[in-house]
Amino acid sequence: MEPSLIITSRDGADLCAVDDFDLDMEIGDARNDFELRVRGRLLDGGELVAIEGTEYGGTVDRVTYDSRGGACVAEGRTWHGILATRILCPPTGQSHLVAHGDANAALAALLRSVGLDDVMSARAAPSGVSVDGYRFDRFADAYTGIRSMLAASGAKLRISRDQGRTELWAEPARSVSGDAEAMSFTATDNARCVNHLVCMGEGEMEARAVVHLYADAQGNVSSRQSLFGLDEVSMRYDYHGADAAKLVEDGTKKLRELQSQGEVAATIDATGGRAWNVGDVVEATDSRTGRTVTATVGAAVVKVKRGRLTATFKVGDKAEAKAGGISASAEGASAPVWTAGRGIRIEAGRISAEVSGDDLAAVRDAARAASASASNASAAAGRAQRAADESVADIRAGAGVSVSRSGRSVTVSATGGAAFLSAYPVGSVYMTTRADDRPASRGGTWARLTPVGGCFTWRRDS
Predict the structure, then answer these.
(1) What is the CA radius of gyration of the chain?
(2) How many CA atoms does the CB half-sphere of 435 hold within 13 Å?
(3) What is the pLDDT of residue 328?
(4) Cβ(195)–Cβ(215) under 8 Å?
């Protein structure tokens, strides 16, 4: 049976069903968007579109109309993408948002908290999945937060559009094991992994905090080295601003992450009537080698072309192989976690940060210091101007300074990047409301910080 596409008005009321359309959609770990092509001027933007009885749908954000071809090309966010563009904020006066009770009741509360309860609803019947006490990461997006909450209870998120309603609910994640045909994989053994981590933190030159951490042959991390010669594999780990204690804490976590015995690449089979959902777990064993691979479904790619719907599935953030008691894992398609300063993490392409009141105070103090530095630089230029006016001799301009002379009058001023760098010495914080106003264009080395008060924020490092 050919799939039909339901198109609604902006308020969600069904308008028409379309059979002649092309769809390219992805949901899951990396993307949650779609491109849709329909004949005629059926879309203006803001509509909802969905294949009835499935999770394949969302909202139209952008429309391009081709008068020559007589078709609309629409781009938008899936239901999952709509969730991903809402932020879960902790309640006032609390550090974290915490879920309570049954998963479906928690979903209803989350939809209300992000203002989506008029677009989607949670199934009223209990799911049988308890999420009581789950604590969300601070300011996580709603889609990531919901998936993490449910995964912690062995469950997955389901979404479906039926009879004009988009419904969310939780159900136990499907776990298929022992089916060698469910997944194909390649596994690479790693005889040597990183076992010496040189952790570098706060300070400069000889005063910089440095901590050496070591892993033994069993992957245990300590400050004692046990592998030498060809067996030693070292790596540098930079964490600017961290003291020795913080370097030991985070460096230990990092070195443990690096104790993988290899890599796994898995492909999930979508033939034979198998229907997967993001969050399902698949396990397959190769009878020839005895190696078992476990992978989580991380994404679904859905295409409709000439009336035929196809769905392919991708392995998620982690696949793990076991053979002879040794495990190997791969974090998706290279999804490392980096620390970019205290409270800042970059994980799977997403930047997250926790900013305390002390952090904000430090930024305010640095901004005031930068303002004072700029004022001092301006005052210095003024004094130079007055001195030149009083006694004009043969004056030559050095780098970063311009001099103009008219009779007995001389004008001295800092120029271009030199004036800017004088106003913002190393350690200063620069804040701007313009995305294209990048301080590095004027010189120096700058690190981008978490936006403060809606301003793009940079710190000068050198």
Answers:
(1) 29
(2) 0
(3) 40
(4) yes
